[in-house]
Amino acid sequence: MTAAVMKGITARPSASAETIRFHVIGPLTLSLSIESLETFAESGEITGNLKLFNSFLDDQIMAELRQGLQQRLQLDVVQTYNLSYSPLGRKTIAQIGKLVRFTPKRNGFYGLRAALLGAAANSDGEGWTILDAIAQFPTETIEVNVQDLLQLRRILEDYLDYKQAVVQAIETRAQKEVESQWDLNLTNLSDLSQLGSYDFELKTLTVNNPALRKTKTGLSVNYDFPVNVFIPQGLSQPAPIIIVSHGFGAIKDNFVFIAEHLASYGFVVVVPEHIGSNLSFRQTFLEGRLNTLLSPIEFVNRPQEISFLIDQLEELVASDSQWEKLLNIKQIGLLGDSLGGTTVLSLAGANVNHARLIETCNQENIILNVSLFLQCRAQFLPPQNFYLGDPRIKAAISGHPLTSGIFGPEGMSRINIPLMMVAGSDDLVTPVVTEQIHPFVWMESESKYLALFKPGTHFATSEQSAEGSESIPPILMGKHQEFGRQYFKGLNVAFFETYLRGRSDFLPYLSSAYAQAISKGNPMSLEIITSLTPKELETAYDGNPPIPVVPEPIESIVTIRKESIIDQIQRTGVLKVAMRLDAPPFGYIDSQKEWSGYCGDLAVALKNYLANKLGLDLEIELAQLPSTLENRFSLLQEDTVHLECGPNTIRQDLSGITFSSPIGVSGTRFLSQLQRQTEINPNLSLEGLRVGVLKNTTTEKFVQNNYPQAELVYFEGPQGRESAVKAVSQGHIDAFAGDSILSLEEVNRQNLSLDNYILQPRQPLTCDFYGLLLPNDDPQWRAMINEFIADSSAQQKIREKWLNSMLYTELNDLQYCLNR
């Protein structure tokens, strides 16, 4: 792997950067030689045209510049290659490329990536610097627009001014709460940061999860993950359970300090290892054995993993008397940090908001919020709002979570359990204002707390392993973590004693007065508040904030129907389902002229599921209606059917329509005769080639936008796909662009030899997640349908009967689509 990466990039490029040219305004430019920067970095001497820049900059900025030029990155060429070619790396470099360009108007992405790889390939064992990368930039001049830099500076200054005002607003609010707590007696309160009275032992469980997830060996079904369980000794009754979720690139052992502390107070602490986003996964990626640093599915897998873990704990209690004596399965709390904090919020009720993600992640401005690079991976999930809340969770603490893009105010407002948000005033990884303070304002739960550590960073309350901490720069790590961990231990004990055990005598420990008392005179202070309003933040900033406290809503309010579909089915005894006649294997007319396919069997299974779920004595009548590409949406919009089943791509631009959870995944490919393989090249324009498409489909729009020089031939009606595949076989068209699975099924149905045809390219051109069409004015009905889809026992045999032949293609497409 190393040899392959280094081949061709170890030599200095034929043209390398000698000058950085700053475009000031109009034709005015200023040039800075790379040689003067190298001299400055080495000796501190200011030479050449650096003298001009020095006259505008103060000593502190020059000192920071020199320190930055000397800073060495400990990434070898393989690690740099994997990072720079990963989805996260590409996104980051493209953002920097908006400032550092090939030409004044061309993003510097490719030059920057080449420079990073060249620097890593030519470095010695001590790492490489920014100057090493600049020397590898493949043009003599690097172009930088000063107006962009000034705008960036203004944005940063506005944010920092606003952050300072926000911290001041929290201090003011905390002081008001202190004044209202005048009757609290804090003198006799014990120090909860010290160990409690219980001894404890550590047990390790291995849990087997039958779910699909990305692991360090690839996409896996039925995987194991280890769980540490800290058990207090000498319990007189079953103890409350606290489940801990670690952060991205961390390990469960990072939380031994807090697990042992809580166990000493009589809590059973359960710490799972999230194998799709732990330290081992990160290292495996850097070694080149994985194609993505963070799979989008991890935002769903992590909460589901914890819900599955709770299922397993319930089974242990039900089947083993020893566990029954230890675990109070009715009192479960959650604690998470960083990405683990995001996991906690999902389980507490915040739903993944796809529309908010799309709006946040596809903005033209430079994204300065580092956490969005991780959050925006979730936009490649199936386009729906994932609700992953677990009602068995009774209270939660979320430390330094990523929130603004993935949840937004719409998601955060759904949390309705006691929750504490933990934040650091100097957090550069998840910026405190956008990721914790504003989201705290959005929360509507009755019992909520914001604990602000000043000056706390992203790592103020966690304990890093030697392996994990070596890659964290000091500016991100910060100082005085020993105070942060002490405060954090006490907060955890007080919060879970209050909201899991119902001990109101621990409430004083969660007061603003107590926080100020224990941190007075320390280099890191603690503020605790229970309320904060947009008005307070605007007053502190003395105007409209540069970042809206509550962003504009992006989803229209839907009026709920008067009679729910479930009530209607109970009243009439009829389930109305529409299905396709022209989309094998979902729905089609078979050789015996019978209506057949996956959807027919699914409808029967749903009918039986509803009768059992609703406890109906009467037999539900199944009314099956035909649907087409042309009328499938109107059947729902006009309330003709309760759902429509077919290869419907989940989207969010249809009036009156919503979708179920995904029932399958596929993507667009070109079907052609094998002998035309070279000619039908999706990487080219397809100019002059006759390409068939089905009318009124998302594929039609995709081909129109991406292959405008191709000659489109339209097919429509119930026999549209059949006619298109015949046209390919008879040479009337050069290729047919369509859903891969449906194209293959149609080739089989026409008894054509697959050996004579090819689908291109190997990876799908689009990612199409299929869902059942549903009316958007009945959330109860959608929830019922999603429960049915999630119940594997209800439809496993149906999938095996109709979709098994496509399993390889579907898994290949799923692997690609979830890791774009």
Describe the protein.
- Mean pLDDT is 86; it is low at 1-12, 215-219 and 285-291.
- The strands form seven sheets. The protein has a nine-stranded mixed sheet, sandwiched between helices. Strands 2-1-5-3-4 form a five-stranded mixed sheet. The chain has a five-stranded mixed sheet with strand order 25-24-26-23-27, sandwiched between helices.
- The protein is globular, with a radius of gyration of 30 Å.
- By secondary structure, it is an alpha/beta fold.
- It contains 32 helices and 29 strands.
- The protein folds into four domains: 2-139, no CATH class; 207-503, Rossmann fold, CATH 3.40.50.1820; 565-663 and 771-817, D-Maltodextrin-Binding Protein, domain 2; 668-766, Periplasmic binding protein-like II (D-Maltodextrin-Binding Protein, domain 2, 3-Layer(aba) Sandwich).
Summarize the structure.
With 820 residues, this protein is α/β, with parallel strands linked by helices. Strand 8, helix 10 (256-263) and strand 9 form a beta-alpha-beta unit.
